[in-house]
Amino acid sequence: MTPFIQRSARQDILEQYRYLLDVESDRLANRFLDAVNEAVNKLARNPNAGASRRFENPALSGLRSHRTAGFEDVRICHLTEDDTVIVVRVLHNRQDLGGIFTEQGVDAPDEPRSRRSVAERTGSRKAVR
Question: How much is the pTM?
């Protein structure tokens, strides 16, 4: 399957990356991007991975959440549609998922489907290690 990271998920990734750069270290921020990239690639190979989640929002019917290795409190929330795994959000466990997903929409893939890394899709640049 082809992974697609929608705008809201890209924003989540960027916010967490910037937070880790500011509060922790370049190394940890880069590890986060690598972990998310690996998790998205695993979901592309096994789209039924993760726990099934139910919300009242009908756009999110079939939503699943998957932990991010090394960042277990970060969940990748995704849907499967045709031959695409749509990453809807990348959220911390402590966030109000019910509130966030009340009006969450699902983007149609708006760019050529590719296997670019999370860093390339989000526009973040990995610091030199």
Answer: 0.77
Instruction: Please spell the DSSP secondary structure of 9-26, one letter per residue.
Output: HHHHHHHHHHHHHHHS-H
pLDDT in tens, 4-28: 999 999 999 999 999 999 999 999 9
Relative to beta strand 84-92, strand 2-5 is: parallel
Boundaries of every domain in the chain: 2-105
Q: For 85, list phi and psi in degrees, rounded to 5.
A: -100, 115
Inter-residue contact 75 to 68 (CB < 8 Å): yes
Are residues 75 and 93 in contact, defined by beta-carbon separation less than 8 angstroms?
yes
CA distance 96 to 99: 5
Fold of the domain spanning 2-105:
YaeB-like fold (3.30.2310)
Phi/psi at 7 (5° precision): -55, -45
